[in-house]
Amino acid sequence: MNLKNVLKRAAALATAACFAAATSASACTGIMLKTADGSYVHGRTVEFGIFIESQVVMVPRGYAFTGETPLGPGKQWSAKYAAVGVISFDNLAIMDGLNEKGLAIGTFYFPTFASYTPTTPENRASSMSMVDFSNWVLTSFASVADVRKAVESGDVLVAPTILKGWPPEPQPFHYVVYDKTGASIAIEPLGGKLVVSDNPLGVMTNSPSFDWHMTNLRNFIALNPRNVPPLTIDKTSFLPLGQGSGMLGLPGDFSPPSRFVRAAVFTATAIPEKDAAHGVLQVFHILNNFDIPVGVAREVSDGVIHSDYTMLTVARDPQALKFYWKSYDDQSIHVVDMNQLDLGGKSLLKLSTASKQPIIDVTRDMK
What we know:
The protein has helices at 3-23, 132-140, 144-152, 210-216, 256-269, 276-288, and strands spanning 30-34, 40-48, 54-59, 64-69, 72-78, 83-88, 96-99, 104-109, 127-128, 157-158, 173-178, 184-190, 193-198, 231-233, 236-238, 298-301, 304-307, 309-317, 322-327, 334-337, 349-352. It has one domain (13-207, 272-343): Penicillin V Acylase, Chain A. It is globular. It has 6 helices and 21 strands. The protein is an alpha+beta fold.
């Protein structure tokens, strides 16, 4: 092995080590909102402890896929529906996206709980990696009901596959799926099987399992958006110190259980916007509450600090078929409108999410 290859291998191993340390604290949060006109919008944050280059990609109808497994190529299929979403490492694995029928999926880290189905020669043709799964869902189905039926029928198995560019171990993921009717499910690899749960709130974070989070919400049912009235004891009145007294006890840390509770409370108490276009902006406003600034959530590996931070925030309008995002470096909202794309085209389309925040000098506008 020549020096160039040695250095390349060392750099790859160093990157994998950094990524492994960084992703153990990944803190993504997903929400769904219903607007006054009956539309649904949803979105999520994307957090990592190191910078990961990402792109928005459009997969056309008819695109051919082959799932990866530990034994080699697995399930094969062609895209029935076109899809738009975010990929990383320039690998065609849509970690978050929306298809032309308004079906959406989000992939979330699920550390210490994910347990995949071992690949055998007998089940290999039905198996795929944990990142292939989101591609399969987005390009194959139009509704949550159809996804649920296919998963529960065993049409696909998620295999413990080592992914190119990722740390040398199967990555732990679980998934949230939405459609434009407001239906939502969580899909989790538990005990070697894919377990599907109704997700009536449309909220998703990370470990533990989805049913645990829903049970934990019962600890917070006393929270109320209305301020607490004054209390009088022996003719002495005690007034709240300010706004928000009904939310006293709302957890404020960045752990998955606390973020799940906050996301459930914020979405349940949100006053509906008039339509999806305004609802998208409300999604971004709510998700601003889950922004993780560099430094507040960190791990140290080999003396190097890895600080989890919000790299991307995305929103989806399944009615208008628009996919929105903003980044840590650019808080301007960007959008890809699927109606303006050739969904039956012959090739993938890609766009980097990297951009810099414009600062607008309005000094001369002062009067």
